[in-house]
What does this fold into?
Amino acid sequence: MNILILGNGGREHALAWKLSQSPLCDDLYIAPGNAGTQLVGKNLPQISNNFDEIKQAVVDHHIELVIVGPEAPLVEGVVDFFLQDETLKNVDILGPDQYASQLEGSKSFAKDFMARHNIPTAKYIEVTQDNVEEGLAFLQSMQSPYVLKADGLAAGKGVLIIDDVQEAEAELKNMLNGKFGAASSKVVIEEFLDGIEFSVFVLVDGERYVILPEAKDYKRIGEGDTGLNTGGMGSVSPVPFYDEVLREKVISKIVEPTVNGFKKESMHYRGFVFLGLIMVGQDPMVIEYNCRMGDPETQSVMVRMKSDLLPLCLSASRGELKQESIDLIDEAVCTVVAVSGGYPGSYEKGKTISGTSDVDEMVFFAGAITDDEDNIVTSGGRVLAVTAKGSDIEEARQKALKSIDKIEFEGINYRKDIGKDLL
Ligand code: AMP
Ligand code: GLY
It folds into this structure.
């Protein structure tokens, strides 16, 4: 069958790489794609998030299955567009509809969903201009640090963690006054949870689910988890402390109530659920839901998966998931992301990338495109990632670093300590 993946990140290269290995995959298209996706499929670089253009591509290329990589088209309703269109309604599309995508697109929607279904998460209150006093009183009743979240999508920058109560009060007012535009016209104030974070991925068909490998990602730019937040500097899988006991808790306290919640509320949720979890004492709690796979977790997760991903995606998109578990490789995996100099602040683009063909491990491209002269050049902050396997995370990390050392572009920067905290 012909498949179309929407997106252009490392996540989409990893998904495309995995799907291209399926015996069921005929032609694979990625819109718009990047320098990596064109190695395993055909890019449609002229197509962005315009739904009519996506429709035209689906018709032109006889696409039977669409897989939506990033959250933006989901939150904007691409699945609804397919379900309501006469020409497209028989094309399978993997992703939640616009209503269900609010699990990522609106923090208050996600918190209220968790409250309705008894899913463990931090205590919270929703604040708008209409109940600022209540918000200030809630802050007074809490202990430092204070967690303030813009309700809507704010490019990963909408969460503030503040030590001083007066500063938190001032920031609450700033947010409500448009610090993050419309995204912070509502703010969720939350209890601070202290613990180690990890991510669990689940593929859902609306009623049934299959659990994918878990991962831990590293968000800060600097080694030892210091400096500014980024889109993600690396990931590892498996997560050593995610043992059978924890896995059972995650399933019974979080995965099952979540999927049962979709079913009870008749939500159209056929797609990946990304559970951002935190260990509080011995118990997992939900920090956030995302309605898509993580990046750079997908790179590690796809390399660990032995099972064919395509039949899973297809059956989930049809609401016919039968498979209950997936096969994994025995090895551990480490992904190290190489970023442009200056990222996550301002950085230059168009730097020539060399050395990637000398690398034995998997290279997943992200902010990298092929220019008119067929050179691979940087086009974003997170440029590429090397994903290596090893007998344990430490060996995988060493191999990833040895490989990434062979890759060059002006300003290249990467963390050498991905997974080191888990030793
Ligand atoms: P979110 O966008 O909700 O994932 O938040 C971004 C990051 O902020 C998370 O990955 C956590 O590291 C941190 N964070 C969010 N909520 C909390 C919380 N209630 N307690 C502690 N840290 C949090
Ligand atoms: N790695 C975190 C994310 O994809 O949002």
Observations:
- The longest strand covers residues 226-237.
- Residues 217, 232, 290, 294-295, 297 surround glycine (ligand 2) (CB under 6 Å).
